[in-house]
Each structure stands twice: as structure tokens, then as C-alpha cells.
Amino acid sequence: MTEKVLPLTDLEIASLATMKPIWAIAEKAGIPEGAVEPYGRFKAKIDVTKLSPESLDGKVVLVTAISPTPAGEGKSTVTVGLADALSKLGEKTMIALREPSLGPVMGVKGGATGGGNAQVVPMEEINLHFNGDIHAITTANNALSAIIDNHLHQGNSLRIDPRRITWKRVLDINDRSLRNITIGLGGPAQGVPREDGFDITVASEIMAVFCLATSLQDLKERIARIVIGYTYDKEAVTVRDLGVHGALTLLLKEAFKPNLVQTIEGTPALIHGGPFANIAHGCNSLIATNTARKLADVVVTEAGFGADLGAEKFMNIKARQGEFSPDVVVIVATVRALKMHGGIEKSELAVENVQAVLDGVVNLAKHIDTIHAFGVQPVVALNKFVTDTNAELEIIFEWCKKNDIRVALTEVWERGGDGGISLAREVLELLDEPNNFAPLYDVEQSVSDKITTIVQKVYGGSGVVFTEDAQKDLEDIEKNGWGLLPICMAKTQYSFSDDPKILGRPEGFMITVRKIIPRLGAGFLVCLTGDIMTMPGLPKTPAAFHMDIDSTGNAVGLI
Q1: What is the mean pLDDT of residues 336-352?
Q2: Do 292 and 340 belong to one domain?
Q3: Is residue 77 flagged as an active site residue?
Q4: Which of 42, 130, 198, 305 is catalytic?
Q5: Residues 298 and 407 reside in one and the same domain
Q6: How confident is the model over 201-256, as pLDDT tens digits?
Q7: pLDDT tens across 93-144, in order?
């Protein structure tokens, strides 16, 4: 009896890659030696102040996806494979990605380096701590928390109301037990007792500020504007009032430099910053994107989760603040995920079901409509899995042709850049065509109108319900003059609605906004909807259970 040979895991494939020294990758990208600060042989920080002041001419390809399912979509994999394919076609290409958070790495979602033969490497180092950026952000966030509590302990000259401190501590791991805590117990020497809590680091405003700042000076100014709470007279207290914006920026000085790595095929990649898209704005750092635009003709980047979350925020927040536009948007879809949106359980996905694919394509259709609403043309990347049948694939191609949608089959997991050539050609054709990109709302609209615009035009909902707390937040925001900011919706990634169980393309639903949090440093208002949590919990069987290290120090079981 012949023993069945299992396919190599992503980690095993990455470990077999022959990486080029980071100096060679920097040279390929056109980065001068004086701007390269190596972190070992295969990683480096880039000092952007030492790059020549050329114009930002690189065209931006944004990769997004349909609403994610447990079946998997492979957005990061397609991002890497597309960039490798563009490089094979002779385009000077760079990738701009987010850094993985240890929360999903150790939890359930896994890493964020792509998969198969379309990965950024060194995969295990990028997924585990990388160059320490997220730890620096954690430290800066918690240093601010310590300074706030010390201010209370040392006399509270700013008259901060301990009951109205909105700044939370953070940790880059999923830990539900830390969502709500009490600190300062044990007597007068231990500080002022008060309620506090933890968010995951990637939900911190420090992370958002880090990813939207254009320079160290801009970073410092944004940190200074952060609201940490309110006085007994209900006046806002900022980091500038505490006088530590310089110190916090100093803690982030090295982290603020973008990280240079490579794909398995040697395409240069900048990986920097990592806010979640369901509770933050879900895009890599603006400084990394702009650095790539300066160095390359085509920049391939991605935004978290589906187009209703990361892509919407990329275009309404990041592109608006960065004063650029995405030239093409790629929407990643899979037969498996479409079947789940068509009502099929995960255990039945290997069984051919053309009707379920057709039933689920409504989810893809809504994401396409959203990208069209921004004035940009999309390309559907149909990411192939081994269980897909020809009939299931063909029905999607027929649907795209009928609706005049560009589509390409991608096989980048198995074939790397070669498996993305068809997609790359579709993208290049669109790059030569003008688009009419514009954000979906004007920031001068009322806060409620901006939220309603997102709900109706992006989610396909009927309207918004504001809880009493959210209505009070609206009044405070208007009173303080903070209404002229973009909106960052915190919503489940699994559904267009705020109920994660409603898949497909629901209609006629209302979105409930229960809290609106001003993030003046980041420059947006965070709207908490449904049951969304800013500190996730671990699943019953975390991914950590399958991880190990061998006797020579190599990672085992890292996904």
C-alpha cells in the first residue's frame, strides 16, 4: 500500500526558500546603502530620511476580499503572488503589508505572511515578534497609562476624573480576562483605585497614529492630540496636557522606520504597522506605502478583511489623509467561501455544489458594488483550492462575464508568481486606464450622516440605530468641535450586518452604534457596533497548542 504524501505546510515551504541577503533586496529596490539598517541577514529597517526626495509616482493596487469565512480566502497570499507575478512581467514592484499580531497568530486566524509559494520571508520571524515594532507600540501605550496613574497619585493637578479616563492599557495577545480590571488596590502607596481594562495592541490609538503619521514630527503632534480622558468639569485631557508626547515619540523612534524583507521569489516587501480592520482602520503604515510609491512603479498593498471594512477605511481614511488614490482594487474570492455564503456548512465544502456558489456570489456582488461606488474598477481574483471543480469555477467566470467584471484565476499558493500572471495582466490593463476615485462622504457632513452613508452604501443596510450612550457621545463630539473627522466603524468581519451569523448579502437590516470614541490623534471617530470587542478572547483550542520548537531552534506548527 502506497503511503499518502501530505503537502508541505506553509512553514515548511518557507524554510526551504533560498533567501537573498537583505543588501541585495535593498539594491534591487533602489534603496541606498546608507538608508539600510540590517536586523540580521534577511531583515532591515529603512531610514526614509536618507532616500532621495523623488516624487511619489508609484501606482497603488489595493487587494481586498469578500466577507471572510472559516473556509479561507487567501488575501495575503494573493497579494504576495500578484506582486511576484508583476515582477516576472518586468514591472518594478514592491509590496506594502501589515505586521502580524500575536493575537491571531497564537489564537485562531494564524499569521499574515501569505501561504504556499506566495509568502514573505523569513516567515517565522515576521510572525513572531518581527523587529519589535508592536512591542514598542505596546510600551508607548502602557507608558502613557503609567503616567496617567502617576499623575493621579501625585496630586492630580489637571483634575482628571478617574471615572472618565478613556485610555486603556494594551497587550498583543488575546486575553478576555483583562477586558475589565481594577487597579490601584492595596492602600495609598499603591496609587488611586479605579476601573481600567486592556485592549489588544493593534486596537490602540498609538497603533493608528503610528500608521497614519507621515514623519516623526507628525507622529509627535498626533500623539499630543490624543484624548486620554476628561476632567471633573468634563473637559478633554490630552497627552499634550500631560507633557509626554515627546517621550512617547522617542520610544517609537526606531519602530517608525519601515521594515524591509522579501518574498520567496525575491520581490522587495515593506511590512510595517498592523491595526485590525474590524476594530481599527486595518491598513499598513502610510510611511511604508509612500516609501514604496517612491521606490517602485507598482505598489501592491492590502487592507484587512472584506471590502466593507479594510478597503472602505483605506479609501475613506488612509487615502484621504495620505492624499493619494488606489489605482486598481483586487477582490479575492474562493469557491469555498462563496459556498459558505450560499448556505453550505464547512464540513460539506468538498462536495460539488454549483447552485451554492451561485447563491453565495451575492456577497461578491456587494463588494464589487462598493468598489464601484468609490469610482475604482475592480478585478476579481478567483483563488483556486484543490477541492474546486471545473463546474464551480466556470459558473463564477460566467457570472463575471455577464456582469462585465474582470476576473482571473489565481494559483499562487501552488505556483507562486507564475500562478498570478493572468491576474497581473488584468491589473496592468486597468492601471493604464483613468479612474474617478473619491471618498464616499465629505468630512463636513454630520457624524450621523457619515455613519449612515457607510451603512447604506457599503453594508447595504437600511439605517442606523444609536443607543443612548452613542447619542450622548454625538452630543459631546459636536460640543467639542470634533465632528469634522472621518468614521472608523468597528464591526464584525463576517457579515455586512452587525450580526456575524448573517452571511451572504442581507438587506433591510439596521446597524446599532453603541459607542463613539474620538481618536483625535489618529484623526477619526471609532464607532462600536454590535458585540464587537477591542480585546479578543482565545478559542477553545488555540493555535498555540500546535506550536513547538525543535532542538536546533526551528519553529514547528506555525501557521
Answers
A1: 93
A2: yes
A3: yes
A4: 305
A5: yes
A6: 999 999 999 999 999 999 999 999 999 999 999 999 999 999 999 999 999 999 99
A7: 999 999 999 998 988 877 889 999 999 999 999 999 999 999 999 999 999 9
Does the annotation mark 277 as catalytic? Answer: yes
C-alpha closest to that of 294 among 316, 329, 254, 324: 324
Domain count, the chain: 3
Look up 75 and say whether it is catalytic. Answer: yes
Same domain, 207 and 259: no
Q: Answer with the one of 221, 251, 281 that is the final residue of a domain.
A: 251
Active site residue 413: yes
Instruction: Name the catalytic one among 17, 35, 208, 277.
Output: 277
Catalytic annotation, pick one of 130, 276, 385, 496: 385
Same domain, 175 and 103: no
By the 8 A CB rule, do 281 and 208 touch? yes
- The reply to whether 142 and 179 lie within a common domain is yes
Residue ending a domain, among 251, 280, 298, is 251
Residue 192 CB coordination number (10 Å): 16
Integer Cα distance of 338 and 394 in angstroms: 13
437 carries an active-site annotation:
no
Question: What's the pTM?
Answer: 0.95
Query: Residues 43, 59, 109, 406: which is the catalytic one?
Result: 109
Asked whether the beta carbons of 487 and 525 are under 8 A apart, the reply is yes
Confidence of residue 1 (pLDDT cuts 50, 70, 90): very low
**Is the residue at 112 inside a domain?**
yes
Q: Is the CB of residue 245 less than 8 Å from the CB of residue 223?
A: yes
Q: Which of 59, 98, 168, 313 is catalytic?
A: 98
Domain that holds residue 178: 134-251
Residue 210 annotated to the active site: no
Active-site residue identified among 413, 466, 496, 524:
413
